[in-house]
Amino acid sequence: MTHKILVTGGAGYLGSIMVPDLLAAGHSVTVLDNFMFKQTSLNHCCYHPNFSVVKGDIRDESTIKPLMQKADVIIPLAALVGAPLCSADPVGATTTNHDAINLMLNLLSKEQIVLMPTTNSAYGTGDENNYCTEESELRPISQYAIEKVEIEKQLMEHPNAISFRLATVFGMSPRMRIDLLVNDFTYRAVYDRFVVLFESYFKRNYIHVRDVSRVFQHALDNYEGMKGEIYNVGLSDANVSKKELCEVIQKQIPDFVFIDAPVGKDPDQRNYIVSNDKIESTGFKPIFSLEKGIKDLIKGYTMIRNTRYGNI
């Protein structure tokens, strides 16, 4: 079954992978994006007859409302993503990440499907074992995570919603983000050959950007059995510490050196192990490993040496 899909923020890091995949699957896709990073990440989609694009702001009801009325599936990717960017523009973060999504949810009809990325950073530091399932208490630390938690509560009141609590995403994308942890550490390994680690034992879960695109398509294909639920989405074999991540990178870049910082701490105090059993029980399995993503990043960084490939 094909759909008319509205993807907000479709020219971003996730969207520039997801939109071509949705088009290839036969869906009609409209992208709304403000192109704040001056990205040209969807140039290769313009040939497609089922692709349309609108330059605009999701906070503007006169822009978003008529686009939503034409869609049967909404995928709201538009956001100011990550703690540093939200700290740099807290007002913009709230109006984009919270207020605009709240507006969108109020405009939804009961029949429309909404598939939304949230974040497993909402788990903060997990329980006494740092182990988290979808039922675990949420302890968001950053403004970004706090507002995502609030929005997720409203989202799940909609009868046709699915929330994906994404692990830390990695991998090459047409709208690249070097500031994401795996991407950042690999970039440092390629160009600096070293990194200083704060709280090297802190663990996170990870997921490849192409597997994120795959899980959204999986939800469309298995919607009736998945709707109304929250799913963690990550690599079950990639609940790894920062030090363990560096060791994985070092296998591909042997002269990469990493050391523990003698003083100070990471402002990002997330530390958790995440269960992905629930999404895997629906038949979804990631196919891009941490090692594969790092290999591709090393290849990609042959073409990239520029600090503009980030969110701040």
Strand content: 15-25%
Spatial order of strands in the largest sheet: 3-2-1-4-5-7-11
Number of helices: 11
Oligomerization category of the chains in this entry: single chain
The helical percent reads 25-40%
Task: Provide mean pLDDT, rounded.
Answer: 92
CATH class of the domain at 4-166 and 206-233: Alpha Beta
The appropriate CATH architecture of the domain at 4-166 and 206-233 is 3-Layer(aba) Sandwich
Principal-axes shape call: globular
Order of helices and strands: EHEEHEHHEEHEEHEEHHEEHEEHH
Number of strands: 14
Low-confidence stretches: none
Give a verbal description of the structure.
- The protein has 312 residues and is an alpha/beta fold.
- It has a domain at 4-166 and 206-233: NAD(P)-binding Rossmann-like Domain (Rossmann fold, 3-Layer(aba) Sandwich).
- 35% of the residues lie in helices and 20% in strands.
- The chain contains 11 helices and 14 strands.
- The chain has helices spanning 15-24, 61-69, 83-88, 90-107, 143-155, 181-191, 209-221, 223-226, 242-250, 277-280, 290-300; strands spanning 4-8, 28-33, 51-55, 73-76, 113-119, 131-132, 161-166, 168-170, 194-197, 203-208, 230-233, 239-241, 257-260, 273-274.
- The strands form 4 sheets. Strands 3-2-1-4-5-7-11 form a 7-stranded parallel beta sheet, sandwiched between helices.
- Strand 1, helix 1 and strand 2 (28-33) form a beta-alpha-beta unit.
- It is globular.
- It starts with a strand and ends in a 12-residue tail after the last helix.
